[in-house]
Amino acid sequence: MIGRSIAGGILLLACLAAGEWQEPARKLNEQMTPEQAQARAAELIERARAAIGGEEAIRRIATLTTTGRSSRPVKYVSVQGPRKVVEKEKTLNGKLSLEFAFPEQFRLNVKGENLRGFGFSYSEIVNGPDAWRDPPLPAISSNRDSRVIDVEDFRRTELMSAQGARQRVTFFITSWLLRTIPSFPIDWTYIGRVTDGAGAMETLVGQGRGGFSFFLLIDPQSHRPAGVAITFVESIQRSVLVESSGYFDRRFMQETFARARQERQARARPPARHQMILRFSDYRQIDGVWLPHRITTKVDEDLFEEIAFDEIRLNREIDAKKFKGPPKAKK
Fold first, then answer.
1. Could you tell me which residues come within 8 angstroms of residue 289 by beta carbon, excluding any fewer than 6 positions away?
2. CA 238 to the chain's CA centroid
3. Which residues, at least 6 apart from 286, have a Cβ–Cβ distance to it below 8 Å?
4. 247-296 confidence digits (pLDDT tens)
5. pTM of the full predicted structure?
6. Computed from CA positions of residues 112, 314, 51, 283, in that sequence, does the dihedral angle turn out positive or negative?
7. Is the dihedral of CA 169, 280, 178, 22 positive or negative?
8. Cα Rg of the chain (Å, integer)
9. CA-CA distance, 7 to 171, in Å (whole number)?
10. What is the Cα–Cα distance from 251 to 249, expressed in whole angstroms?
11. How big is the CA angle at 72 (ends 8 and 16), to the nearest 5 degrees?
């Protein structure tokens, strides 16, 4: 289930031949060779870099730091008794900070809360060829019995965390500076103009290692990045929580939890293809470079999250210790 922000939630794997993206790509394939599509993508990237400030201004950026506030509306089911079920909505607030030292040192810190009000915090760090999450994710079992964890499961989880960190870093620096990190290069291909609620956008697909791909949307008028999009297959379930004041009545609570299980089963949905679009807005000029200060994320046209960034600072000194590698495992 999509339970966390785009900053730190989903392993972002897109499918090029999906939904509204398929037809423009098919038509373009009839008109352009792969070489021409790649050349057109390079042309649009160059034009977009000029639109946000130009090559010289972008090259002068040695560091980028900022903090932001996130807001996510979450609809859920509140089971308040064996015969009382209420549809509710709650806004989950969070904070994030970004520290980038080019060419290849990046740190993303996320703080937030879940539906029950419990807080969480983690960081994702990229330092040259190394990338990790702190604290690390729990190992994901590959066995039929999910309780059995072996050494390969730990290694696989570490690789997924590293891949996810590089992917999310790529989203941010592609969104803002149309750059990528040397250890995670992106190949661009033009697929045509895709029309959605914001109008027709010049659309490129970026592809990296491990099957990672996403769509970059460029505004044909301003030539600035307008957003990025992914498609993914996932079973999105609405959360069902027990919220009852009858905890001292054992039978009442047993029946309430049984009703909650029934609600989860009745509302279960099979995996399906979904579309996530991150829109960039509130562009401001910082030291000669135009940067977006707001990201609005929608999943299948429903608002998923809004992130508003405070002042973005360029070329401020960053303590190198923040990119120090994870502690070595004790033997």
1. 52, 53, 57, 58, 61, 177, 314
2. 20
3. 312, 313, 314
4. 678 899 999 999 999 999 999 999 988 888 999 999 999 999 999 999 99
5. 0.84
6. positive
7. positive
8. 22
9. 9
10. 6
11. 55
